[in-house]
Every structure is written in C-alpha cells, then in structure tokens.
Amino acid sequence: MSTEPFPAVILFHYSWSPYAHKISWYLQLRGIPYKQCIQPPIMPRPDLASLGIKYRRIPLLSIGNEVLCDTSLIIRVLEEKFPEGRLGERGGMWEEWEGWSDRMFPYAAALIPSNLPSMKDERFVKDREDFSGRSFKKEDVDARRERALEKIGGFYHHTEKILSDGRHWILGDRMTLADIEAIWLLEWLIALPGALDSTVTADTYPKTFSWIKRFTVLLPAPESVNIPTINGTEAKDTILDHEQVSASSTSDIGVPDNDSSGIAFGEEVEVTPVDTGKNHPQRGRVRALGKDRVVIEVTPTEVHVGGGSLRVVFPRKGFEIKSVGAKGNARL
C-alpha cells in the first residue's frame, strides 16, 4: 500500500445493515484505515441531510470531499484508489457474484421474520415500505416467505455445488472479492434469528457453511477492532474542509458531447435509484459523466465555516438522471 498521504475515509452506516457489513469487511481485510459515522436505521438522517444528501440508501463512503453511493461503486473506487493488494483480480469474475447477490437480496429481505421487534415498530414498517415500495404488514410478509425460501435455498445450493470439487474459496485456492460478494448475504441470513428454516443448515449445506466459517476467521476478532467513531459534525467538517486533489478522482472528466443522457456539464439534475429508495432522489449539478459513474456537486443545507461543497458519486448502472424541470428521465 502506498505511504503517500491519503484523504480521510469515512463509512456512514448502521451496525446491522448487510450491505454495510460487506464494505466494513472489505476495509478490514484490506487494512484500509477509516472512521465511521453511525446513522439511524430509518429516516431521517440529520448528519447526511446537513450535507445536502437526500439519497437514503446505506452505506455511504466518503473519500476526501467525494461521497460514494452504492456498494458496487464503493468497492470499485476502493480497488482503484488502493490498487496494491486489491482483491478483485481474475478478470472481473467477482462481478458475477455481485450481481447474483444483489438479485437475491429482495428475497433475503423477505425472510426477515415478521415477529421481530423491529417488524412490530410502526416507524420501521413505514420506513421500509417507503424504501421498498412493498407492504410490510405481517400477513404480507408471511405470504412472501415460502417463495423467498425457495429462491434463497437455490443460492445456498449453487455455492454448495461449486465448492463440491474441494476448493476452499469460490474461485479456487485463495480468498478474493468474489467470496465477499457471495458471502455477505448468506452470512447475514445465518446470523438473523428465524430467517432460515431446517432446509438450510450446516447439515444440508456443509461445504457452504464451512466456507463461510473460513471467511469469518480471516476477519479481525471483534474485540481487536477499534474503528474511530465520529459524529455528524466531525464528518461534515472533514469532508467540506478537504480540497479535492486526488489524481484518481472521477470529478474532473467533464461531460462528453455525445453522452447518451443528453445532460450538460453544470446542469441541475436529480439522480434516482431505479429499484429501491426511489422516493428520495439526490439533487445537484453535474460535474462529470463517465462510462460507469456520474458526479454531481451538492451544496450543504447548513452553513459551514469557510464554505465548501461536496461531490456525490453514483454508478450509472441502476440509476436514472433527470434534468430538474425537464420532462421524462434519461437512464444512466
């Protein structure tokens, strides 16, 4: 890893977010120093709102004054900015597992037991209905369970079959990013009381459960992990006081004349996920449109001493961009 000074890395998350687990695992396995800013599991999130961020999905990760949205983008940028010892080699095969886990997540979420305390909390239920666009009433959650178990069982069966040739890791003889991308969802369900039934156990899928255990052994022991925790004001000051100087930044590539979105540099837009969290678009002015990401400049809602703004970065895949005041959407 380079010894050159590097902008502060801050992870915005809450402890039981499965997507946040994936990012914290990655940071810990790579030995990338970071701080954390703990967020409420439901809206509102005042720390992010004060930065002008309305986008609601967790986690977010800031590097300097860039705030990265969506775990797929977070992983890619970290691989770019910390290339020595990166985990994503082997021709991008890890991306297949990333896509598989993302497609399976709605079924995994449908396995959250309806008798958990959070599922009886009216605020949580309304928040998740706003997020997903689906009913979280007990009868509707229970009705989705059988189909979800079938789909998730297929995921465990798939990994069991791959590991049946005696390999220790999903791509062969060493742990790679593919293992992180495959395990985060499976491990979350194992750890979630009541999510799985007797069809998914260490007896029915022994190789998969052993593989997950091998992975978790690689992680630092919880008692040895001391991630500095900062509050929202400290996080905001760190982000806004930073001058963008990173040579690998995505913020200065501009907008190609022939970009398919039809969006111009400096145009005010809203960026919105196409699946979940659609009720909370992020507004800002376009600073860059690359082939795989978009960068918008966002002005904090609260005054910061010395001014300052931040760049919020989204992947193009899975998001839409709309010019403020214009009709229709342009797919990113």
Average pLDDT, all residues: 91
DSSP helix count? Answer: 9
Number of domains: 2
Compute the separation of the termini in Å. Answer: 33 Å
CATH architecture of the largest domain: 3-Layer(aba) Sandwich
**Helicity level:** 25-40%
Assign the CATH class of the largest domain: Alpha Beta
CATH topology of the largest domain: Glutaredoxin
- The strand line-up of the biggest sheet is 2-1-3-4-8-7-6-5-9-10
Shape: globular
Biggest sheet details: 10 strands, mixed
Strand content: 15-25%
The unreliable regions are none
- The H/E string reads EHEHEEHHHHHHHEEEEEE
Computed structural class: alpha+beta
Radius of gyration of CA atoms, rounded to a whole number: 20 Å
Count the strands? 10
Description:
The chain is an alpha+beta fold and 332 residues long. It folds into 2 domains: 9-85 and 227-331, Glutaredoxin, CATH 3.40.30.110; 94-218, Glutathione S-transferase Yfyf (Class Pi), Chain A, domain 2, CATH 1.20.1050. It has 9 helices and 10 strands. Strands 2-1-3-4-8-7-6-5-9-10 form a 10-stranded mixed sheet, with helices on both faces. A hairpin with an 8-residue loop joins strand 5 and strand 6 (282-289). The model has no long low-confidence stretch (mean pLDDT 91).
Q: Which key features would you list for this structure?
A:
332 residues; alpha+beta; Glutaredoxin; Glutathione S-transferase Yfyf (Class Pi), Chain A, domain 2; 2 domains; ten-stranded mixed sheet; Glutathione-S-Trfase_C_sf
